[in-house]
TrEMBL record:
<dbReference type="InterPro" id="IPR009080">
    <property type="entry name" value="tRNAsynth_Ia_anticodon-bd"/>
</dbReference>
<feature type="domain" description="Methionyl/Leucyl tRNA synthetase">
    <location>
        <begin position="216"/>
        <end position="442"/>
    </location>
</feature>
<dbReference type="InterPro" id="IPR015413">
    <property type="entry name" value="Methionyl/Leucyl_tRNA_Synth"/>
</dbReference>
<keyword id="KW-0067">ATP-binding</keyword>
<dbReference type="Pfam" id="PF09334">
    <property type="entry name" value="tRNA-synt_1g"/>
</dbReference>
<feature type="region of interest" description="Disordered">
    <location>
        <begin position="594"/>
        <end position="628"/>
    </location>
</feature>
<keyword id="KW-0648">Protein biosynthesis</keyword>
<keyword id="KW-0030">Aminoacyl-tRNA synthetase</keyword>
<dbReference type="InterPro" id="IPR023457">
    <property type="entry name" value="Met-tRNA_synth_2"/>
</dbReference>
<dbReference type="InterPro" id="IPR014729">
    <property type="entry name" value="Rossmann-like_a/b/a_fold"/>
</dbReference>
<dbReference type="InterPro" id="IPR014758">
    <property type="entry name" value="Met-tRNA_synth"/>
</dbReference>
<dbReference type="InterPro" id="IPR033911">
    <property type="entry name" value="MetRS_core"/>
</dbReference>
<dbReference type="GO" id="GO:0005524">
    <property type="term" value="F:ATP binding"/>
</dbReference>
<keyword id="KW-0547">Nucleotide-binding</keyword>
<dbReference type="Pfam" id="PF19303">
    <property type="entry name" value="Anticodon_3"/>
</dbReference>
<dbReference type="GO" id="GO:0006431">
    <property type="term" value="P:methionyl-tRNA aminoacylation"/>
</dbReference>
<comment type="similarity">
    <text>Belongs to the class-I aminoacyl-tRNA synthetase family.</text>
</comment>
Length: 628
């Protein structure tokens, strides 16, 4: 049955209608019933280019009538739900590519930020291992589907390790616990009357593993995504009654616009739905490599109906008997599904309809990011311009790769990679703005103060406008992280470094030290102020470049354990104390040298750019964003 409840929130929140949908185990009912609701407000505006948060979304959890209390009683405080974040489950027909890495890097930055704020995070990633393409790829490689899946899945785990991905759950759709939950979910949807058997004939894209409408195909019935002709197929399949959920999905998108983000992705989904939802096939008679349909073992479950359940099966603990209810009780619904825009339809339309059919809560937000290009061109093996993430991380390091893509691609839009811009951005931001500032400040401290701080940072910065500026930038970065404006968050943190370089150049402590007396004391305090700013940068940028920030913290005399224990509260001014001993200066990021013609087009050996301490730092601020 469905329940529609209106609830008015006071203060800065407008009156918003929130919808909760659940289904009984019998046939669908259009009747409306009152349900006890507890509301939680979530401010979320990732589509805005401004740091100001501009909207509120309401999410609700419903209790049964037996759990309801008198309307005059005081409700009990509920335990805070975990922040469940998912990447797509990556298809193992081929090793990971840069698009997969980009999704996962972004998800990891979001997960790390949420942990800094004190949230219990469950970061889910994994591999989608069933379907026709998998069997074909395995046969082409002369291996069995099982062996093929093992090898490719492991290649994802290896890359995630190299990229410092801090996932909590890695689910494989060939895992027995996943298969058990898929079978249980299928049975619930079947019992609800939303699965039926029928013949279907249409144009099928093998690469998408999806039947296509002729109106969405290119010339010669080519798939617009893979540019290959679709093949005509006729099968006796089981279908999911997607059309039955048209109105309910329209209501969700209308009354909860944050369900699909950015806003232009929501518009894409709504425009697609205007032509009317059609029931879709959820089984394949011609595909052997998959989970068997519980009521018809001659057929296998459609790969998407299977894979989407990985977001739930990942919540099952390995040691327990897998069940849908146990998995759900571990924290579902997901707070954020992070996906590429090419699979938006499956997550924003098919998946919520499936969940409603099974009587389960919907994810809170589906965020569809853009594609990556290389040198302004779409990447492809036929063009010889693919961007291999393994090569990139081994060539430049995880911090450089993570920072470039999160800083230079406006999250949600398409973005472009060129090696020249990559080197210029990484050198300017990480080696110069941040690295050189720390290195020359520690050098001055060692030379003049025996690497020891002369005052608490809170005392050294009393009445100093620089401190106020840093605090404003930290708050700005937090707001941007919360709104998934990852590029803007990087920029705000980098502004702290730019301000620090300007401060030290204007105050010229190297000259003040030579004057002695009160000038010496002022110079020593200036170094404390800059190093406190570096400490704050290390915390605020850690979601993006964790190893770089660890090295900064260690240079400031802290242990890895102390760095790992930091929270966002540690971005508050006042962490460094008088008498603290800093480590000797040691460059935290090696400048990448641009190859010259004499080097035959290969990268020169990485080396640190050394500058005389009296020379002001050359500031380079370059932002390139490519619109979707």
């Amino acid at each position: 049955m469905a329940a529609r409840v209106q609830h008015s929130l006071q203060s800065q929140r407008n009156s918003i209608t929130a919808f909760f949908f659940s289904s009984s185990s019998s046939s669908f009912s259009n009747s409306l019933t009152k349900t006890q609701i507890s509301f939680r407000s979530k401010w979320f505006s990732p589509s805005s280019s401004s740091s100001k948060r501009s909207g509120a979304a309401l999410y609700c959890t419903c209790s049964s009538n037996s759990d309801s209390t008198d309307s005059n009683s005081t409700p009990m405080l509920a335990k805070e739900d975990p922040f469940i974040l998912t990447t797509p489950l990556y298809y193992v027909n081929a090793p990971p590519h840069m698009g997969s890495a980009y999704s996962t890097i972004a998800a990891d930055a979001i997960a790390r930020f949420q942990r800094l704020t004190g949230k219990k995070v469950i970061f889910i990633t994994g591999t989608d291992e069933h379907g026709e393409k998998i069997a074909t790829a395995a046969a082409a490689g002369g291996s069995t589907p099982n062996d093929h899946c093992d090898a490719i899945s492991q290649s994802y785990r290896a890359l995630w390790k190299d990229l410092d991905i801090s996932y909590d759950k890695f689910i494989r759709t060939t895992d027995p616990k996943h298969e058990a939950i898929v079978e249980e979910f299928y049975s619930k949807v079947l019992e609800n009357g939303d699965i039926y058997r029928a013949d279907y004939e249409g144009l099928y894209c093998v690469n998408c593993e999806e039947y296509k409408d002729e109106k969405e195909l290119l010339e010669n019935n080519c798939c617009p995504m893979h540019l290959k002709p679709c093949v005509s197929r006729k099968e006796d399949n089981y279908f999911f009654a997607l059309s039955k959920y048209q109105k309910r999905l329209e209501d969700i998108l209308e009354h909860n616009p944050d369900f699909v983000q950015p806003m232009y992705r929501l518009n894409e989904v709504q425009n697609w739905m205007k032509s009317g939802l059609r029931d879709f096939s959820i089984s394949r008679a011609s595909v052997d490599w998959g989970i068997r349909v519980p009521n018809d073992p001659k057929q296998t479950i459609y790969v998407w109906f299977d894979a989407l359940l990985g977001y739930i099966s990942a919540l099952s603990e390995d040691q327990e008997q897998p069940s849908l209810q146990r998995a759900i009780s571990s924290g579902w619904p997901a707070s954020l599904h992070l996906i590429g825009k090419d699979i938006l339809r499956f997550h924003a339309v098919y998946w919520p309809a499936m969940l409603m059919s099974a009587g389960l809560s919907l994810p809170k937000t589906v965020f569809g990011h853009g594609f990556l290009t290389k040198d302004g061109m779409k990447m492809g093996k036929s063009l010889g311009n693919t961007l291999e993430p393994n090569e990139l991380v081994h060539k430049f390091g995880a911090d450089a790769v993570r920072y470039f893509f999160l800083r230079e691609v406006e999250f949600g839009n398409d973005g472009d990679y060129s090696e020249e811009r990559f080197i210029n951005i990484v050198n300017a931001h990480l080696a110069n703005t941040i690295g050189n500032l720390l290195n020359r400040t520690l050098g001055l401290l060692k030379k003049n103060c025996q690497s020891t701080l002369v005052a608490d940072s809170s005392v050294a910065a009393q009445g100093n406008a620089f401190k106020d500026n840093v605090e404003k930038l930290v708050e700005k970065a937090k707001t941007q992280y919360e709104s998934l404006l990852l590029s803007s968050a990087c920029e705000s943190v980098l502004e702290i470094g730019n301000a620090g370089n300007l401060y030290i150049d204007e105050h010229a402590p190297w000259s003040l030290f030579k004057k002695g007396g009160t000038s010496f004391d002022s110079a020593a305090k200036d170094l404390v102020i800059i190093l406190e700013a570096m400490r704050i940068i290390a915390v605020a940028l850690s979601p993006v470049a964790p190893n770089l920030c660890l090295r900064i913290y260690q240079q400031l005399g802290y242990t890895p354990e102390q760095f790992n224990a930091t929270t966002w509260n540690d971005t508050q001014w006042g962490g460094l104390k008088s008498g603290q001993i800093m480590a000797p200066p040691n460059p935290i990021f090696a400048r990448i040298e641009i190859p010259s013609e004499s080097e035959g087009g290969t990268l020169a050996e990485k080396k640190v750019s050394k500058k005389k301490e009296k020379l002001p730092r050359t500031q380079t601020q370059t932002q390139t964003t490519v619109g979707a």
